Amino acid sequence: MKRIxxxxxxxxxxxxxxxxxxxxxxxxxxxxxxxxxLATELYLGELQGVIGRPxxxxxxxxxxxxxxxxxxxSNGVTDSAASGTALSTGYKTSxxxxxxxxxxxxxxxxxxxxxxxxxxxxxxxxVCINHxxxxxxxxxxxxxxxxxxxxxxxxxADYDFYAGGDAKCTTEQRNDLYGRAEKQGYTIARGYDxxxxxxxKAEKMMLYQKNVAEEVPYAIDRTKDDLTxxxxxKAGIDFLSKKSKKEGFFxxxxxxxxxxxxxRDDAATMIHEVLDFNAAIEEAYEFxxxxxxETLIIVTADHETGGIVLGYTGQYKxxxxxxxxxxxSVDNLVAMLESLKKTTWGKVSEMVKENIGVEPRxxxxxxxxxxxxxxxxxxxxxxxxxxxNHKALISWxxxxxxxxxxxxxxxxxxxxxxxxxxxxxxxxxxxxxxxGIDTKLKGQYCGKKK
Length: 450
Ligand SMILES: [Zn+2]
Known about the structure:
By secondary structure, this protein is of the alpha/beta class. It has two domains: about 20-305 and about 400-435, Alkaline Phosphatase, subunit A (3-Layer(aba) Sandwich); about 320-390, no CATH class. The protein contains 15 helices and 16 strands. The chain has helices spanning about 1-15, 35-45, 80-90, 110-115, 130-135, 145-155, 170-185, 190-200, 230-245, 255-265, 265-290, 330-340, 345-355, 375-390, 425-435, and strands at about 25-30, 65-70, 120-130, 160-165, 185-190, 205-210, 250-255, 295-300, 305, 310, 340-345, 370, 395, 400, 405-410, 420-425. The strands form four sheets. A ten-stranded mixed sheet has the order 5-6-4-3-7-1-8-15-2-16, with helices on both faces. A two-stranded antiparallel ribbon has the order 9-14. Strands 10-13 form a two-stranded antiparallel sheet. Strand 5 (about 185-190), helix 8 and strand 6 form a beta-alpha-beta unit. Helix 2 (about 35-45) packs across helix 11, helix 3 packs parallel to helix 15 (about 425-435) and helix 6 (about 145-155) runs parallel beside helix 7 (about 170-185). The chain is globular, with a radius of gyration of 23 Å. Zinc ion (ZN) binds near residues 31 and 259.
């Protein structure tokens, strides 16, 4: 009987062509709309003096692509909590909710389903590990702002690998959380070298920055000891593939600060974040090349941020190459200017020119005394970034999220299921199908309800 059933199942698999990827990568570029991707490629082209895409990102070369809707249950423009929940559970919920439906019921993510299927599970990001997108894969809370409550779910979900910025909460709450994590079998590594020395003996892993930090620094501001998203991804692949040799793994990797840079209308910083995200995807692609018939890589976004337009009112022009002169993020420039305290306009001007490549606004003499305040530093830095973006002929229509389609790119086993115009909820539902979960209720809820 068992044999007959087995044969039937095989036949079913053969006729329906269900893919069964053993290794699933789910990359989410927070805020990464189509123009974020294209701006990055056109920028690389302009650096070579070419208009076009001589140097393509690894994921734009994937064979499958789709347009993905991002609207939430409560609004045409989603926030990261509702879109994270849609991308993780297959439910469109209302803005602000993490892993709960529009009525407040707990709903479970595809990562949870993967764990139940015996796969090792990893959740990684460049922002705090209890931020909206990562937490939508393990937590349940009606408000994304209940950071400490959300962080507790990391232990409840008990996944194998968490990495990114430290949990956002008070120091006391964090120490308590990590103390209990260690008792539960987690090893906490700080920095990539620390990961490498501890990974072998670790049962479960939390990987953070060398010193407690709720974010991994922007790629454009990075120093030697800072984690990169590529290192995080590499560590995740290493750890998870050793954890579950038979059943494989599921890993969600978020490029969380593409969104942050875009909220600030800071194009150069955004482009460096997309490049950093691409470098992380390259790690997965290397893995894919060694496990071609068993690996699926999906790259998408939770929404577009900034309403970025590659063009400026009244001109048929783009000059992205000028962004090359920007050496630090707008946040970093604010901090640098603030540190000047009692200074002169000459020093302020020098700092802005050196790091952004434009003259700061204001018609002052070089020896004019300046009492630097946070507000003044903010204004000078943001004006300089605005002026550089203007020179590059980039406009930002929203400064916040927009409701446009986001792109999806996919390669590997099952990738052909992702094409055309789809809802963000279709992505986890399709992965659930791969995991053998009944998704007849497509559009409503199809995962496992606890
Ligand atoms: Zn987001």
